[in-house]
Amino acid sequence: MRQTKLKISECIRSRHDPSVTQVTNSTIDGIESFTPFPDGNSGSTIPASSVPSQPAVLQPSVDPGPKAVAAAAQVNLQKQQEELERKAAELDRREQELQSQGATAGKQNNWPPLPKFFPIKPCFYQDFSEEIPAEHQRLCKMMYYLWMWQCMTLFLNVLACLAYFTNHGEAGIDFGFSILWFILFSPCSFLCWYRPVYKAFRSDSSFNFFFFFFVFFAQIVVSVIHSVGIPRWGNSGWIIAIEAMGHNKAVGVIMMVVAAFFTASAALSVFLLKMVHSNYRRTGASFQKAQQEFSQGVLTNRSFQSAAASAATSAAQSSFQRN
Known about the structure:
Layout: H1 2-15, H2 18-33, H3 66-104, H4 128-131, H5 134-167, H6 172-203, H7 206-228, H8 238-245, H9 249-282, H10 287-299, H11 302-322
Helix pairs in contact: 5-6, 5-9, 6-7, 7-9, 7-10, 8-9
């Protein structure tokens, strides 16, 4: 106890010691004079936001029902249908404008080349340099010249049969049939095989190529029959020309010339058919493309669409009447 009291008294004395008091005061003054802003700038107090904070509220998710989804889908489909109808109307308008511009620009039908005072006007437009590609122009012109050759041969056939009829009374049937072949084959050959091959070269159409091959093969068969010259068939072929030589040599010679024309026509037809076929294979046409072109052409034809619609309407009306 005595030692404890001595220690307490020593501590009190040291507290009142001037040296200890000086060190203590200097330490306190250093702490109080310390500032975190060495430049002398005092820190500014940032006031708290006066706006009261609101708690975050989560909106409940609402799933649309099936009726709402169906209604939205129907509205979307209706908008798409209106957009398609608008585009179709715009395309029709542009097509009509192009047609009217082509008519006013002077792109009018120029074949057959008839005089202006003639009551019948041209029915087709034909221009090799404008519509046919350069690599097909020569072959297309050769097909046109072949058609003209065949028409001239049929006309000479009429004259030869007339000459034979004047010297042989029983040849009236041949003369009549020769007139029929000239009237029938001249326009039909132009429409059935020349125009298809012209359009095939113009637009690279597989359907027109196939149509041309089918009809032109039949044309070759007819040319071979004409060159043979079966009696009473209305042609001046080799058989009937040899027979006419026994009655009149001059008539026989005329008929032989016509028979040579028919033979040349058949040979040229075979040659040009091979050339067209080789060009057809290089264009990449095929039977599948021909089917697609035919189906698209039929389905997009307005007359076919109107006929199909009227047929469907009549069928529906008849079924309702039966029920």
